[in-house]
C-alpha cells in the first residue's frame, strides 16, 4: 500500500510472478519455549505451496495472497500472516485455519490474485494481437508479400511478417515480452490462419469505410476478369461514385471467383457481392467492362441482363480500348501512319534493350 494507487496492481503482479518466498534449504532456527523446542518445517512449503512465505530475517511466516490484498478484504483488519508474521510453530493447525472456508478472507485474497493474473494475461494477449495487426497493416499498405519459403526458426529470412515482428519487438520491450519466443506456443498469433483472419478483418473494415463514403448514393461498376496463378477465373470489381465533396472516387471492392461464365451466373455473382455490402442494382448508373477480355461475350450478356433490370445502368465502353481500335483502323488505311508506329516500336525495342542507348537518348 506504500506504492501510488495507479501502479499497485503492477507491483502485485510482479510479486505474484516471483511467487512466494520459500527458502526451503534454509537452516530454520530453533525456538526454545520452556522445555519445548520448535522450528519452521520446510515441508510446510509443499503443503501450502501457493501462498506460504518465510522471512529469514524475521524467522516468521507470511501469506502472499493476504499480504497483497488484505487491505481490501480483511474484515478483521489485522492478520498475523500479513503484519508481524506467524511464529507460533507448535500450532501448525493455524496454517490450515488461516486458509479457512471458501468464503474466508484468505480465499477472497486468493481469488483477487487469480483475477489479477487473468487480467494480466488478457493485457498480454491484446499487446501480442496488436503487434501482429501493426505488422500486417504495414505489409498490406505497402502491398508486400507476408511469407517466405523457409519460415523455420533457423531460417535467415523468415519472411516480411515475422521479420517485421522481430524488428518491432527489438524496439519495444513491452512487445518483446509477449511475442514470438516469449508467447505461449499455442497462442503466438503469427500462424498463416491468424494472418488471413486479420487481413480479412482489415478488408471488411476498409470496405465499410468505402460504403459509408458512398452513402446509399448512385454508383457505377467497372469489371475486369483475370486469371490467378492457380488458373481460377476471377472478376475484379471496382465501384465509382461521387462523394460528399463532389469528387469522383474509384474504389476496388473485391474479387469474385467466377464459377461459371454464363451471363446469368456472372450476374448472380455480382448480386452476391452487392448484397454483402448492402448495395443495390437499382442505384447502379453505369457499367463498364473490358471489351478485349476473353469473356467479352459473357460480359455483353451480363450488361444486357443488368440493363433489363435497371435501364439507367448505362453501358460505357472502355475508352482506352476504343482508342486502340481507332489507331488500328487508321493504321490499316494510311501507310505513313502504319510505318510511323512500326518505327516507334522498333526504336523502343532497340533503345530499351541497352542502358547506354537509353542514356544517350
Ligand atoms: Zn492468506
Automatic annotation (TrEMBL):
**Where is the TTF-type domain positioned along the sequence?**
36-129
One Pfam family recorded for the sequence: DUF4371
Q: Which SMART domains match?
A: ZnF_TTF
- Domain of life, per lineage: Eukaryota
**What are the leading ranks of the lineage?**
Eukaryota, Viridiplantae, Streptophyta, Embryophyta, Tracheophyta
- Recorded protein name is TTF-type domain-containing protein
To which species is this protein native? Hevea brasiliensis (Para rubber tree)
Which SUPFAM superfamilies does UniProt cross-reference here?
Ribonuclease H-like
